[in-house]
Amino acid sequence: MNFGFLRSMLPLEVVIYLMIFFGALLAFEGFRQVVGNHAGEIRQKNRRMRMIAQGVDEARIAEVLFRNHSTHSARTKGPVESFHRTVAHANLPIGMRALLASLISFAVIIFVAASQFVPVPAAAVTALLLGFGLPYAILDRMAEARLKKLSEQLPDALDMMARGLRVGHPLNVTLRRVARDMPDPIGSEFGIIEDRIRHGVDLVTAFGEFADRIDREDVHYLSVCVGIQHGTGGNLGRVLLVLSRVIRDRLIMYKKIHALSSEGRLSGMILTMMPFMMVGTIYKSSPGFFLDVQDHPIFVPIAILICILIVLQGIILKRLTKFDF
């Protein structure tokens, strides 16, 4: 390449061009940070801290964070309580009433649309499955993903608390640090604990409420450890370090088991989908294979029985390839 034009430029011109280049680069980076709301110290890592930075009062913050939390115990059984806990764990930005109204409206729309093509009973079943069953499955997956992320963040939060306790900070300061520096969901959850303790709730009670809200085995371990240490005394920092190591080792073991069982889970998925693929292939190649006998009186009962057996097969295979420890 020919760089002869550089020799003809004065040193002052080179400096000016470099200043223009770096000035444009800094302006672009500043614009990117402002647009992305990541400018310097303004950025907050969790929803609670963002609301505090916006000047939202504590009552409103508590209302938002506790919007969908159930007042029942985590051990309460029943479909309504199970649905309420799933919505709370999914941490939706809308309330329970708005969610139910949306689901009912969605189901009615599906029923009206499906009734134009199929009989009313079939349209009702379709509306129930797609209007309530499918959203519940999505909410359950969202709740499981959020709880899994919280379990993965918990060892880091305990390490942060243990380091603060070892250098002499009080417990409420270490809780405030986790609530400020950790992202959601663990940041907002520890912020709730810190707010509860600051408003006069006992330490053991605050961690017990946290365990009831999350209902995870690792969180119950934390609640029990804090309760025992609070009642008998001892080095809480060392207890938190040991608990952090145990939780992290359990997560590593779970990932190893998940990887080793991947072949079985894939085989179960293929075996569950195989009947549907076979029916679709046969119907595509020879439509009369099923249509010629669809008016037979036992066709519908046999078809329903086969669908039930396929669903049971999928459930059994899923339970066989799922390991709890």
From TrEMBL:
Membrane topology annotation:
Multi-pass membrane protein
Q: Which residues form the Type II secretion system protein GspF domain?
A: 158-282
Q: Which residues cross the membrane?
A: 14-35, 94-114, 120-139, 266-286, 298-317
Q: Note the superkingdom of the native organism.
A: Bacteria
Locate the Type II secretion system protein TadB-like N-terminal domain: which residues? 10-145
Where does this protein reside within or beyond the cell?
Cell membrane
InterPro entries in UniProt: T2SS_GspF_dom, T2SS_GspF_sf, T2SS_TadB-like_N
The signal peptide here is: none
Q: Which GO terms describe its cellular component?
A: plasma membrane
Pfam families in UniProt: T2SSF, TadB_TadC_N
Keywords for the protein's UniProt record, in alphabetical order: Cell membrane, Membrane, Transmembrane, Transmembrane helix
**Main subcellular localization, coarse class?**
membrane
Show the PANTHER family listed in the entry. INTEGRAL MEMBRANE PROTEIN-RELATED, PILUS ASSEMBLY PROTEIN
The name of this protein is: Tight adherence protein B
Organism for this UniProt entry: Loktanella salsilacus
**Organism classification, top ranks?**
Bacteria, Pseudomonadati, Pseudomonadota, Alphaproteobacteria, Rhodobacterales
